[in-house]
Sequence to fold (330 residues):
Amino acid sequence: MFLSFRRNHPLAYSLCTFALLIILLGLSYAGLFGPPGKEGEHEEFLVTPEETLEDVSHALAARGLIGNTFGFSIAYAIRHGSVELTPGGYEIAPNMDAWTVATILSEPPRLAWIRVPDGYRKEQTAELFARALGWTEEEKQQWITRDTVIGEDVVEGVYFPDIYLIPSDQSTTEVAERMRARFAHMTKDLRDEAIEKGINWNEALVIASLIQREADGAHDMPLIAGVIWNRLEIDMPLGIDATLQYIRGEPTKWWPVPQSEDKYLESPYNTYFRPGLPPHPIANPSVEAIVAVLNPEETECYYYLHDYDGDIHCASSYNAHRANIDRYLR
Fold:
């Protein structure tokens, strides 16, 4: 009977075959790109900085937020134009199809991962937040000139370098408070140690900021701390190049290469021109830099330099320092 139908009604057979193909394609499409479930609450989904598209696909599937990892990967590559992901927090619901989820993950996240490197001055940090959170120029300047100025002693140095996950709608004031709270938490034991050793905490942070900008790595920090303490004990100008960079810093070039004439700049931060410490930290130091201040290397050196390989060399006299310059930098 079926064979007869096939011979006698080729058009009907073709239409049935076409309809069957359409159904199969529809099922395949739904399996690849369709939503994995019905109505459901929006969920917070985090993409961490180290995750790949494959990692995220499997995580979404495990949470029941996509139905097919392969289909989502295709949709994301098409929507985003690449397989690169922007780390952050996104809101996704189980009734979204793969295309919708891919679109959401292609847009700026609601929660942004922001890494603040060691030794950034607060203007650099403000630029990071402004880009990640979409701050206006007015908001950025407010963060620099108002939110991060809490009295004369809290201007710089207490905005802890770390990785933060921050909501895009968090105010500039709240961001500053979060960074100060993180700093207080991470340095509590160090502050107690400074008190026990009779070291002024604010001065310790100033020295730590100098060390952070001068050191080639954590391994250099105790020696540089020892040199700085030695100079302070005899009221010898610190002669820290990083302070000249701080004075001359400007947008796009916050830490310019110091020039010989910079040593004569009139500024309270010029440690060539003025003895003692600058009025406040010049950057936000790491825990390692603060540890070095409290536990300096015992040394007879009053001078140091880094050679072209980044190795540090110190000297106990100016003549010996000049010899190091001739040997390692000329």
